[in-house]
Amino acid sequence: MLTKLAALAVALLFFAPSVVLVGVAAVVNPAMTACAPGSLLVGPIPDSLTATTRSGQTVTLNRTQLTHAATIITTGGQTNGVGRPGVVIALMAALTESTLRMLANTDSYPESADFPNDGNGSDHDSLGLFQMRPAAGWGTVAELMDSSYQARAFYGGQTGPNYPSPRGLLDIPGWQSMDPGEAVQAVEVSAYPDRYQNYQPVAEAILTALTRPAPTGGGGGGAPVVPETTRIVFPLPEGTWVRTSPFGWRIHPITGERAFHTGSDFAAPDGTPILAAADGVVVLAEFSGGYGGLIVIEHTVGGQRVASYYGHMWQHGIHVTEGQMVTAGQHIGDVGSSGQSTGPHLHFEIRPGGRGAEPVDGDVWLTDHGAEGISGGDTTLAACTAGGV
Known about the structure:
By secondary structure, the chain is α+β, with helices and mostly antiparallel strands. 21% of the residues lie in helices and 19% in strands. The chain has helices spanning 2-11, 63-77, 83-98, 141-144, 147-155, 180-188, 200-210, 362-368; strands at 41-42, 48-52, 58-62, 211-212, 242-243, 248-251, 258-261, 264-267, 273-275, 280-287, 293-301, 304-313, 325-326, 331-334, 345-352. The N and C termini lie far apart (45 Å). 50% of the residues are buried.
């Protein structure tokens, strides 16, 4: 397939606009309903946080541990049916099982040390934040050494990576009416079921400290609150794309004149999932002008506002709406060839400073920020949920 894509890339030249769109009509996928961010919007992650367990023990968490907590919170906020109660339960589980550390297990899985980790665990053959076991069907070593995957697996449900077994929180009948510690035990099935309740005050303190009020609507005109991202991913699934036209000056493929290309083009088959490059808030989702279908997402990366642009989707290939919160790696649209384009591809831009700011080389930016590759099976259609029960 890659050979065919490479041949297609040689045969086709892609054109993307060199100026910002001025169109105003917003036309999105009619199947999607507007969905505003809930109360699970992660703000800047502090360097440390100190809280007290139910038994009176003082716990101090560092920025790495809190970043894992932010992944759990953000994933919960994007999983229908979880809400704040479900996130507290997930944080209680990860605090108890790993003290919010991504743990390898070199005795059982030597290859686990090859993945980013926060230390080596020794609990039988368990891995990661939630100490999940590959042998129990939770996932492969590579999958379980990914904090986002583990969070999705813990929450479970029909969109979870393990459905219908092993069961995640959403697969437990009546979990909402259980004591939070009992709900954790229903997922973890631990030999020490009473220990989870001890971390409930710490989990609640983390959730309060890391979340901030949702953006407000209306005519105030202020910039939306944007979460600090927990990860950076490449915007197309692994093995689906070929680099074609890079950022910078080039010969315009239609006019033959020299023009500046504000993005990076990646050839991919029509309908290939487009993934959000980072956690953020959709500030534009429209179908008009030279970009054709265009999505713009604003993120906070290292404390800096950054906008990512995704262009040339068909009208039916836009799966998000303005004001929607998305997480890194979520399926936000499909590759198309609308607007000023001569073949199916993703036109991708990065603009430090936010929407409308000067662009930089998005391909280089992804490399410099260690963008992760996402396999095709890991993509899910973007969705959001209010932060309530």
